[in-house]
Description:
Elements: H1 4-21, H2 26-36, H3 51-59, E1 78-87, H4 92-96, E2 116-123, H5 130-143, E3 148-155, E4 168-175, H6 185-189, E5 193-200, H7 206-214, H8 229-239, H9 242-260, H10 274-296, H11 308-314, H12 327-339, E6 350-351, E7 367-368, H13 377-385, E8 400-402, H14 404-409, E9 418-420, E10 423-426, E11 450-454, H15 456-459, E12 465-468, H16 471-476, E13 489-491, H17 497-508, H18 515-520, H19 529-545, H20 554-562, H21 573-585, E14 588-590, H22 597-613, H23 618-636, H24 641-661, H25 668-679, E15 681-685, H26 688-704, E16 727-729, H27 747-765, H28 769-792, H29 798-806, H30 821-825, E17 831-836, H31 847-859, H32 872-881, E18 883-894, H33 896-899, H34 904-913, E19 915-921, E20 934-940, E21 950-954, E22 961-963, E23 991-993, E24 998-1002, E25 1005-1008, H35 1019-1022, E26 1023-1024, E27 1033-1036, E28 1050-1052, E29 1063-1065, E30 1077-1081, E31 1090-1093, E32 1098-1099, E33 1103-1108, H36 1118-1121, H37 1139-1146, H38 1151-1158, H39 1161-1170, H40 1179-1183, E34 1186-1188, H41 1192-1211, H42 1218-1232
Parallel strand pairs: 2-3, 5-13, 6-7, 14-15, 14-17, 15-16, 17-18, 19-21, 27-32
Antiparallel strand pairs: 1-2, 3-4, 4-5, 8-10, 9-10, 11-12, 18-20, 19-20, 21-22, 23-34, 24-33, 25-29, 26-28, 27-28, 30-31, 30-33
Amino acid sequence: MSSTGDNAACRAQVQAVLTAFTDTPLPEAAVKLLDALGYTSEKTAHFGSSADSLLGSIEQFKPELGPINRDKIKADLWKSCAFLFQLTNDEIPSLAAGQSPLGADSKLARGQIESFVFLAIELQGENWSRTDLAVITREINKRFPMPAILLFKHQLPSPAGGRRAGGEGVSLAVIDRRQNLRDSSRDVINSRITVIKDVRLANPHRAHLDILVSLALEALGERRRPSNFRELYDAWIDGLSTQALNKRFYTELAWWYFWAVKQVEFPKGGGEDPTKRNSIAVIRLLTRLIFVWFIKEKGLIPEDLFERETLKGLLKTDPGAKPEDSSYYLAILQNLFFATLNVEMGKERKWAQDGGGMKGDRLIHSLYRYQELFKDVDAALGRFMHIPFLNGGLFECLDRDLSERDFQRDPELKALAVKEGNGWVLRVDGFSRRKDAQPSVPNKIFFGGEAQADLNADLGTRGKRVDVHGLIDILSRYKFTVEENTPVEEEVALDPELLGKVFENLLASYNEDTQATARKQSGSFYTPREVVDYMVDEALVAYFERHLPEAAERAANLCQLLSYTDEGNPFSKEETARLIAATESLKILDPACGSGAFPMGVLNKLVHILRKLDPDNALWRTQNREPLEAKLQLALASKDLSRKDTEIEEAEASLAKFDEDFADNRHADYTRKLYLIEKCIHGVDIQPIAVQIAKLRFFISLIVSQEVDPAKPNQGITALPNLETKIVAANSLFSIERPAQLGLRDPNIDDREKELAAVNEHYFGARTSRTKRKWRERIFELREELAQLLEEDRFLPEGAVRQLVHWNPFDQNAAADFFDPEWMFQIADGFDITIGNPPYVRADGSAEYLAQRRRLEASRQYQTLWEKWDLYIPFIERGYQLLKPGGVTTMIVSDAYCHAKYAQKSQIWFLKNARILRLDFLSDLKIFDAAVHNVIYFYQRADGVHHTPERRVHHETFGNVTTLPSDEQAKLTHRMFFPEETQHAGFFAPTLQIGSICYVSFGCRPNSDEKQAKGLFVAADLVSEMCDKEHPKRYIEAKDIQRWTYQQSRWLEWGTKRSPSLLARATFEELYEVAEKIVAADVSGAENRAAYDASQAFHSHTLISFVPWHSLDSVRNNSLKKTARYSGEKPPRPDLPKREELEATSRRFAVKYLLGVMNSSTARDFLRANRRSNIHLYPDDWKNLPIPDVSPEQQQPIVDFVEQILTVKRANPNADITALESGLDHAIALLYGTTP
């Protein structure tokens, strides 16, 4: 690996070449840049400098493909181009050794697949998107048999704001063809293209220099530089991975977050618990600031608001020189957030009156504050004046007056409110000139940070110190892009998906049920893009199929439509119209949306579909305008004179807004997204801050689809919609009880519901503060009226009505304790698709979770809750409940759903009541960083009796699948949820379950009992390396045993005041003190791990004991009585086996024979197919293991094998016993009657 000095020299050389790029001919400048990175070759060819000559030469590599589509690659905008050189294995070894490739042939090796070709193209104009560059790269790569790497020179966008905007730049595009080098051009279509985009030639961004230098030959390879094509290509692709970039960024940001939470103090209106309050406040601050950072990429916010040198001249004190002051947050960020981005441009932006106190502008958040912190208040106002109004709710100050009605609605507010003058105020953000209302947010958390900070408690580490950098310092080191990456093209920059990855982990970090995982592993809770894309695609195919006539090619055409790389629209004009109508009427819900991975995945895919179906946006425009025209006609024909004028005015305003939205077809994606968000996509999450982040993803997506134009009002940016009635904070697992309506419903209810739906539409599109307030107030009025009508009509119980009335969608700090799609979204007939990644919370989670479990069970809203169910079980059923007939639900859940006993009720219920379209088993993959494996299901609300579900296993990588056997659903059992092959479901020889031969039990849990001695001691306190009076019992744990034997043991405290009487689980002594037994690890692995014990060792709960029943002869206790009973034992349990019979049976089996069977591959395969979990093997799993029921004579060869193995392993624990184990496997397979 190269030294820091080498990197610095390379960095300086790259920067020098970029600076000289403008004044150097393109081929020469491009070659110099590659040379600075360590790549050069004499192998070249003259393909000409015009687009036609270069393309003509390239076409000769594969003439059978015909001419390259010039329009598609915008060849008319190519100013010049050049074929630079080819890099082959002739040159790479020498370059890797730091030598010039002397003696290499200079002739182009046209057939050498394992090589690179480099080309350079200069483009006209500045609006070159990532997709534009990817299209050119893909089309050229279709013609070359080897990977073609393209360097583009072009003008950079010149948006409003930002002193460094515009100028010239370069972009580098690299295609990943590592698996497809010998395949046809068809495979190039599906390859991912990665772009280092918009590298400024003058003053390049630090992050771009870092990325380019990381690709230098001298910087590649941890131990040695790549010395051949394969190693070099792998190193380049790995170096361009956005995963590594995201992980590095998250690590820095997580350290900052854990540190910053301890440095700040926000007003108590955010919650009584200061730790949680400050955690949420810091996440909210981070949300707002990272959003600002993304839109800064559009040039909408001047960079100098984040540069210390500029701030020194703007503020009276340098934020870096006063690390404990809060001047930067108060003066710059609060004014930016609340008085700029949330206020319309123009005269409304002004300073509040001087001084504090109870002035008339108190709690008017549209006014700038803290004049005393600025050197020149007019200059400060000038900085903010040209920033556009964005709306959307993210930048609404959460401070507000409280009325008696507020306290009646939410009595908990009393504890959070503060008295100011004669009234009560909820201070959450603290945007106030009152010192006692302001937050403390020191400058050091933005600039500087802290060296060697102690975060061990947060990170679960010991003795570790880390350097925490200021947030602005961190953000400045990375390149951001506002355009979301796709599975087939990505920019080497932090894209908006990063928001989800960062915030879902940070949100989990203070949740009791997930904080341990969150603090140790990044990205543990965020669904990867390729998984989201797959689930969205399959759900949409199932939906669209219902809107198209039967046809053999229907499914294939839909897959082509959904593909990011397949081109064109495969459907007829009539089918296209149907699909667009189906898109407009589609209703999708993510009931646990988190930070918006699935809502954004749906949005991006639907926009992609509409681009293909309707490139000029005409059909989408017509489809969405028709309802508005019909609404106007209804208003004109209305006979209600009291409402007619208002209805006409509102209908005309809606049409005018619609026409304005669709006026410029250059913004077609904006109108597609806007109306898809309004009509189709809905989300729910129990965490209010997560809801804000999901909205934020939508906002960025809408902004990226607009062009900045300083000559137009608001810089040409349309204010963002209001999403409070599209993504809501609520507990989606609890519904409102709606009893069957026996009589006629009051028609006024229907009228109010229709009006509420219309008012919600108006609010969604409200673009000024005045109209937002108007429609918000009307929404409250209508909800009150509707609730009163429902109560009078007795359509809902009084308690349910009270719940509905108390829900406030505009309160960013609160979540409803119920979810009602009719009340919240005006959707009464269900959704077409429910999709998501529900939380994975164990049955023994926090007290809060346990309370929710009890409430769920008491609600009687679920039919699949059984035993110690985990939280995803009700989510699975809830997703199904919320569907329309024919709708599809898909979620990615823990693969414990395949094996856990508690899941069987859910499995059987869906087999009987749903159509199971597909199961995707992902047990071999690590989708998340958290220690959980997964399964994806697709259930349809339809009859499944004669349907044959698909069962697929993914191997090594997601999408690499094998199809498993299946049958008509009516013939299947819950075993269809087992991904393993089922050849061991039955054996051709008599067998007995091992639970009929041995008592099977976990060992003791040697930590203090939670009730009697909580925290008094832990296991380590009871264990000694020496045997003495206090530690008389030999003791082992799972870490001590290998297959067959254990090599080390320690000694357990026993017979004292604390052990065993105060142990969390003591078990009984006779379990261990038998002549011989077997112990097995409770963790599943590549092989079963069972060991022989004849030394009466005690063991922990990490091991499972197998004690022959006859060895426990006459032992009686409650543990044994739960499993079996002696004849006449009280109380009688005829359902349990008789102890006498079990003891007689166990005497027929040698313990070493049982051990041999347990460690065999046959037993391993059986347990894989029948276990509850992919991580653990539980006693109940083992109890069902069939043991060949053979005579002692037939057992003896197995015993002989086991004794040989034990002898060898005791002599040498590392001895190779492969041959012995193979012979044993063969002998055991014969006993089972199966083919070994």
